[in-house]
Design a protein that fits this description.
The protein is built from 16 helices and 13 strands. It has 362 residues and is an alpha/beta fold. It has a 7-stranded parallel beta sheet with strand order 3-2-1-4-5-6-7, sandwiched between helices. Helix 7 packs across helix 13. It starts with a strand and ends with a helix. The structure holds uridine-5'-diphosphate. The site of uridine-5'-diphosphate has 15 residues, from helix 1, helix 12 and helix 13.
Length: 362
């Protein structure tokens, strides 16, 4: 069986790393061809993940980063279609909710190649988010949908997608967190001059937060207030760095207690997450990793797809309308004693289950 995997953005490298390893274990029955669309292309947003997580090198590199949504998605569809005509895979496998996900799914379905979608059924119910459109379209054209949670299965059912097409697989990010957190050097926290449980870790990159100057300023001011309690480390996404410079807000971030660093590799990131006192983020993946490591989390957004984390008390939503909302949530999280809840995202064996389900369905 031949699977053509389409990846392009940071969170997809993390997800695909686990499933690629599971495919490798099924060789020669399964042959994986990887297409990298180039949506993320820097060393520290892309190459470091392939190196550290030992993801096989992509057979195709499309280099389609740095374009607007329309041009990027359109050119991806065109290029992926050509690759599909040449490779003739049994499945196209896509992950998550980026433009690369939707482009892979659309190129495949138009050529009648079945699509498998990992992380299916997630919904924010906010159609202003580009990710939400990518999710809905990908789910509706997929033949096989790997839903990480019970909530995701229900979301799909309410859109008429049910039955054997939908597999509750658990979350491959849990597999990744378990496997790769054992591989780090253990030096990341000390190397940044931080002490375990005595810092906030923050990541901000969602379009609705960084492209809106008022929201971005609110978030920066809230992080500056948090830094009066404990140092804040902000590994900064290229989109965020650009918008901070554009709006002049980077001047507020010169404080040694509020530190901007370049994005870090996954092995360092999981160490930084594990040892943080509280994680403040608008990332989907980072919210879950906080939970996996039992670290209280504040999600700086109006809503989250990972509602079960809010329901179980592991995560607090802090809409970025006012500085105080975020600061209050951060202080409450500092005082929280979060007990990890078992089983929400499977047992860390999701990637194997996905690889075997695809092989069986070919
Ligand atoms: N991540 C990383 N280094 C960083 C920031 C994030 O390795 O400096 C990892 C993080 O641990 C998670 C993934 O990138 O596994 C999440 O990606 P991102 O936040 O870009 O996307 P989202 O999950 O919101 O789709």
């Amino acid at each position: 069986m031949k699977v053509l995997t389409v990846v392009g953005a940071r969170p997809q490298f993390v997800k695909a790393a686990t499933v690629s390893r599971a495919f490798a274990a099924l060789r020669p029955a399964v042959d994986e061809v990887i297409v990298h669309t180039g949506q993320h292309f820097d060393q520290n947003m892309s190459a470091v993940f392939f190196e550290e997580m030992r993801i096989p090198q992509p057979q195709y590199q499309l280099e389609l980063g740095g374009l607007g949504h329309g041009a990027m998605t359109g050119r991806m569809i065109e290029s992926i279609e050509e690759i599909l005509q040449k490779e003739k895979p049994d499945w196209v496998l896509v992950y998550g909710d980026t433009n690369s996900t939707m482009a892979g799914a659309l190129a495949a379905v138009k050529l009648h190649v079945p699509v498998a979608h990992v992380e299916a059924g997630l919904r924010s119910f906010n159609r202003a988010m580009p990710e939400e459109i990518n999710r809905v379209v990908s789910d509706h054209v997929a033949t096989l949908l790997f839903a990480p949670t019970e909530v995701a299965v229900r979301n799909l059912a309410s859109e008429g997608i049910a039955g054997a097409r939908v597999v509750r697989s658990g979350d491959v990010m849990y597999d990744a967190a378990l496997f790769y957190s054992a591989m780090g050097s253990g030096q990341a926290v000390a190397a940044l001059g931080l002490r375990p449980r005595e810092y906030f870790l923050a990541t901000i990159h969602r379009q609705e937060n960084v492209d809106d100057p008022r929201r971005l300023e609110t978030i920066v001011q809230a992080l500056a207030r948090c830094a009066r309690e404990l140092p804040v480390l902000l590994p900064v996404h290229p989109r965020t760095r650009k918008m901070l410079a554009h709006s002049g807000l980077d001047r507020l971030l010169q404080d040694e207690r509020l530190r901007l660093v370049d994005p870090v590799g996954y092995l360092d990131m999981v160490q930084l997450e594990k040892d943080a006192r509280v994680i403040l983020t608008d990332s989907g993946g980072v919210q879950k990793e906080a939970y996996f490591f039992g670290v209280p989390c504040v999600t700086i957004r109006d809503e989250t797809e990972w509602v079960e984390l809010v329901e179980c008390g592991a995560n607090r939503l802090a809409p970025p309308g006012a500085v105080q909302t975020i600061v209050d949530a951060a202080l409450a999280a500092m005082a929280a004693r979060h007990q990890p809840v078992q089983g929400l995202y499977g047992e860390g064996l999701s990637a194997d289950a996905i690889a075997r389900a695809l092989a069986a369905a070919a």
